[in-house]
Amino acid sequence: MTNDELIDAAAAVLHPYRVDDRLFGDVASALLTAGGNVYVGVCIDTASGTGFCAEHAAIAAMVTAREYKIAKIVAVWRGDGPVQVVPPCGRCREFIRQIDPANIDTEVILGSGRTASLRALLPETDWPSPVS
Questions:
Q1: What is the DSSP letter of 35?
Q2: Which residues contact 106 (CB under 8 A, 6 or more apart)?
Q3: What is the pLDDT of residues 49-89, one digit of tens each?
Q4: Distance (Å, rounded) from C-alpha 94 to C-alpha 107?
Q5: How far apart are CA 31 and CA 109, in angstroms?
Q6: pLDDT digits over 85-103, tens only?
Q7: Which residues touch 72 (CB under 8 Å, ≥6 apart)?
Q8: Residues ≥6 apart with Cβ < 8 Å to 125
């Protein structure tokens, strides 16, 4: 699957829905597993801070299917204009890494023609050694 196809898969599930001052589904994510399967998810914003990012939802769908290794992942948002690729937040970067050690090499799509490994976006993952 090409990066543009994965971007399109994420964009296909963008269906923002407003409840009071909260917005659900305005960011979507798609990921491709090492096994070749695609999983998608959307964000949920809650007033109490218990919501989650779109990447978390896509990863939860993947884990539900008993897969853990992510080959590539993307998140997208569409405001009033065209779809835009958005990078994963720090919490999502760490979440991706903790699902499987191999995910440190996940390809993160940062735009139609731009990617980076999770390793490059999250370079310090080892616990430090003791000072003394």
A1: T
A2: 70, 71, 72, 73, 96, 117, 118
A3: 788 999 999 999 999 999 999 999 999 999 888 999 999 99
A4: 14
A5: 10
A6: 999 999 999 999 999 999 9
A7: 3, 6, 31, 32, 106, 107, 108, 109, 115
A8: 97, 104, 119
